[in-house]
Amino acid sequence: MRKPRETNVADSESLPETPPSEDHILIRRFLRSGDARTFQELVERHLPSIRRLLYTLFNGQREEMEDAEQEIILSLFQGLKNFQFRSSFRTYFYRLARNRGIDCLRRKRSRERTLARIKLGLWNTEPAGPEQQVLRREEIETLLGVFQSLPSKDRQLILMKDVDGFAIEQIAEVLEVPAGTVKSRLHRAREKLLRAARRGR
Amino acid sequence: MKKQISCRQARREMQNVLDRSDPISPLDREDQTRFLPGDVQAHLAQCPACRDFLHSLGTFAAVLRGQLDQSLEGYPDPDFSAVLQESTGQAAQIPSQHAQRSRANSSVFQRLRNWLFAPAGKTAAVYRWAGVSVIVAVLASFIGVRIYLVSRTKQVIQDQIDRVVELVYQEPLLPGIESALIRTRPTISDYMNDLNRSVDFWLEDADSEPYLN
Domain segments of chain A: what residues? Predict the structure, then answer.
């Protein structure tokens, strides 16, 4: 059986790897000159996939996403001098974004818990009204809604492999788990998604 | 004849083919059926649910991606100038804070040094050294007295505990039973300590004496 290896250039964003040399050239140029435009160019090359990751992590909450994005870019700006040219920049940036994003999410959750504790004594929590229930139902009817209802780890796996086209080994590098684990988790996540989507239809 | 495989195996194999097929555009995913092994293809011919699964597997990524990108439409560009400003601000802040702290520390030591050792061009003040010596001596003797008092108090408490124990054990625990301090009859613990004695001897004693103490 022949293994399919051909690439489709029509959809450039789904390429599993931007040519490493181009990223590396930009990084070297930025480290040499400190030119902000070079840095901007480097970030913008990978921004769509980073934004999709943030959307997945924050369930589409824009304000939180914007804050996290800003923090990630700042973190990259400050840490780029430590980049080892051995690995791909895309994987490096994605891992950094994921770690920072999760940090932001943890901070946000702890803030929300505190707020909830404060509110607990002041207001009664009422069940969602019919309008909210309709909205939720509409959300579930879209594939994105089903996707967002999956556990965060499953969402990240599907996003990285199927939407952003990372290779299994790269995902393993970002998530810091063995490739076999990535594969089995990914299979389960896909089945969960497709089963849930079928139920939603 | 192809061997039969389960839906689960067939789906796993479909996904394996899909995972091996990177880099592949989502648009081409559905076309991967031709790379499926024969037994999976045979299974697909008979199983509509798995055919449906394969179709979804081939199309969901593109749909999901489209919906994700649609949700991200109108998302503002990152503020690179703010990042730069913040970054350079932090970079400038760190050394200045460090310098401030070290300045504060050094000024305390500087003053103490000038107080004890005369600055250049002046003679050292003897009365300051005498004062410091007196303070050190008082502190040392104070600590010494405290240590002595602790051992003394410990001895007093120990004596009191010994006295209480003696008083308690002088009286018998129950009427008709000897106290631990003045007993004349053997107890169970005495037999346990002396294992050379025969069990019969112990039982003999046990018949006549209540070994409760």
Answer: 15-125, 126-201
Tell me whether residues A6 and B65 touch, CB distance under 8 A.
Answer: no
DSSP line for B108-125: HHHHHHHHHSPPTTSPPP
Tell me which of B67, B85, B111 is where a domain ends: B67
For residue A120, the Cα-to-chain-centroid distance in whole angstroms is: 33
First to last CA, chain B: 89
The answer to whether the Cα torsion of A132, A134, A137, A143 is positive or negative is negative
Sorted by sequence, the CB contacts under 8 Å of residue A149 that are 6+ apart come out as A140, A196
The string of pLDDT tens digits covering residues B133-169 is 899 999 999 999 988 899 889 989 999 998 888 877 7
Which residues in chain A (106-165) have CB-CB distances under 8 A to chain B? 142-144, 147, 158, 161-163, 165
Taking domain A15-125, whether its CATH number is 1.20.80.10 is answered by no
Helix (H) or strand (E) holding B127: helix B126-170
Q: Give ipTM to 2 decimals.
A: 0.72
The answer to pTM > 0.90 is no
B57 touches chain A (CB under 8 A): yes
Angle between helices B48-71 and B7-20 (to 10 degrees): 40
| Number of domains present in the structure of chain B | 2
